[in-house]
Amino acid sequence: MLLDQVKKSNYKKDRVTDKPVRSILKAISWRVVGTIDTIGISWILTGEVKTALAIGSVELVTKMLLYFGHERIWDKINFGRQ
After folding, report:
1. Fewer CB under 10 Å: which end of the chain, C or N?
2. pTM listed for this prediction
3. How many domains does the chain have?
4. Nearest C-alpha neighbor of 15 from the set 55, 75, 61, 64
């Protein structure tokens, strides 16, 4: 079966390689993409660039913090790891 051919990692290895700094970098890169999307949608809906940038800047910070917390919680959960 195809899934049997995939090299499996163990929980200990995942735990060592999944450091908080990785979660921070992932949060930042994802938020850049997400914030550009939010600013674009806000601009379309409001017709105002200033309002769109204000919404995007607040959303950037709040969602980055939420993502980081979400990642760290999932790092403590064994589900899906071997």
Report:
1. N
2. 0.58
3. 1
4. 75
